[in-house]
Amino acid sequence: MKQYDRWKQLIAILSHKEQMPVYLLAKKLDVSLATIRRDLAILEKDRVIIRSHGYAKLSLVEEDEPSDVSKQLISISGKEQIAAYAASLVQPGDFVFLDSGTTIRCIIKHLIQPDLTVVTNCPLHVESLVRKGIRVILCSGEVKPNTFACVGAKTIEQIRQYHFDIAFVGSNGVSGNSGFSTHEFNEAEVKTNILLQAKKRYILADSRKMNQEYFITFWKMEDATLITDTRVSGFDYDRTDCIIVDETGTQS
Question: Using CA atoms, how far apart are residues 247 and 112, in angstroms rounded to an integer?
Fold first, then answer.
């Protein structure tokens, strides 16, 4: 089994357990203790998991922006469900903004509408969009090393030139107290300006993001539609217009 595939299985196992002994993870994945310890060390460094006294568990809250690899490993099924539903909201001929992030990137493969133009601040989206024959406009700027998002004054200046039919933005945290929040000021500014320029505003966040708060609020709960995968306890869904994909019957 390739390392990346093993990591995905490891994450899937831990997503159903509060924590698990390291030796049992090795047994379930049919690898040696040395191999599983190396895997866990890498994933811990990337803030995907936490190790403590011979046990491992998922890291539910990141103090810093997680890397793109981390995001791809976590909540893969939820991200795909959200992305498929989001793509279904796009109409032929729409002028669309796609924010950076792995959930947003998953939207691309579901876009089948003709005559689309997509604006994005994420260079990683460009090749997939072009290969689908979609017209792409890339907003340039300073590139963040973890997420590959373009941010800064130059990016915002370009975004403000456009008026989008529909925009999809990701959020690191969603809470009743702080609204939609993220780790970093420059990225928050970009997200705010994307939403200001859009007629239809959708913020995408899987269920792991609910009841989480980060440093910078970029949008109020009441002023956008949240798309998430499944309902979680303790979150007030009446605070925002919300689409819960598990309750719509939509398949990814």
Answer: 24
Exposed, middle or buried, 152 (CB in 10 Å: 0-12/13-18/19+)? middle
Mean predicted confidence (pLDDT) in 119-142:
96
Tokens 């509060």 sit on residue: 18
Q: pTM of the full predicted structure?
A: 0.72
**Distance, CA of 240 to chain centre:** 19
Element (H, E) at 42: helix 33-45
Joined tokens for residue 161: 């030139």
Q: Which residue has the higher pLDDT, 148 or 94?
A: 94
Could you give the CA distance from residue 113 to residue 25 in angstroms, rounded to a whole number? 43
Residue at which a domain ends, from 59, 80, 104: 59
Q: In angstroms, how far is CA 35 from the centroid of its own chain? A: 29
pLDDT band at 252 (very low <50, low <70, confident <90, very high): very low
Alpha carbon 97 to its chain centroid, in Å, reads: 15
CA distance 175 to 117: 32
The span from the CA of 251 to the CA of 102, in Å, is 18
What total of structural domains would you count in the chain? 2
**Residues 106 and 224 both lie in one domain:** yes
